[in-house]
Design goal:
Length: 252
Amino acid sequence: MQPVYTKGEVLKNIKVSKGIYKLSIKGDYNANMGQFYMIKAWDEEPILPRPLSVHDVDKDSIHFLYEVKGKGTERLRDLNKGDIIELTGPLGNGFDRLKIKGRVAVVSGGIGIAPMLYAAKTLKDLEVDFYAGFRDEIYVTCDIKQYVKNVYISTDSGTYGHKGYVTDCLSESLRVGGKKYDTVLCCGPEIMMKKVVDICETNEIPVYVSLESSMACGLGACLVCTCTTNKGKKRVCKDGPVFLGEDVVFNA
Ligand SMILES: Cc1cc2nc3c(=O)[nH]c(=O)nc-3n(C[C@H](O)[C@H](O)[C@H](O)COP(=O)(O)OP(=O)(O)OC[C@H]3O[C@@H](n4cnc5c(N)ncnc54)[C@H](O)[C@@H]3O)c2cc1C
Ligand code: FES
């Protein structure tokens, strides 16, 4: 199966923090929270498109938040207003709105915050608390604030909010408030997601995690993105990227 890539015009590509950029593409896009697009802004190197989560969708544009890591994201960083990229999506199974009930905690680590603005916006009618962990500088939390009840922030450096891990904040909230959430959504480094899954297991709260992996086709055909779950090998691009936390076998 050949993916159908369409062209998209860059409206903005702005730096929001050190190494973190927001790319806005013109057009009428429709996606669910936690879904992603495969994006390409090059003909040759680095050849493969790169997966980016839907950060936000407006009436006439879609937004992606990305951290510059290697060749692909460096190319994205160099885009200017009016440049044309290629993209296909929305892809994958995102956070399932029908499974999210009651009081919700949304937990992110670092660039794992990327899909959570659109998640918070989609869930704005529920009671949502947002937990965000960063290394040092914080970003995007101001945009999310308007959709949620409480925001808890941690930084490794102690520059802002709790000095330590975002999982400390979640544990403390549950210790003080009892079983105060009916559902938890999580995206971030694997080690952090594993910790969140453990905390949720102890507190008997269902948790949905958005996994990352390298990808090639993004469509379920090449098996580059395979992960291990209690239900066998799964493709992050097609079966996920969102999985029930208790099903995932973490490597971290
Ligand atoms: C479903 C999905 C959604 C994603 N959404 C976002 C998003 O919204 N914003 C964002 O910034 N990133 C997101 N990512 C990760 C992003 O796709 C990678 O960071 C990007 O492809 C790196 O490409 P690069 O060419 O810049 O770096 P590369 O040159 O490919 O890699 C640079 C370094 O980053 C590491 N790396 C590459 N890809 C990954 C990965 N997927 N996970 C962990 N480490 C990796 C490599 O091991 C290497 O050390 C997502 C990934 C997936 C699977
Ligand atoms: S990227 Fe090809 S199967 Fe997932």
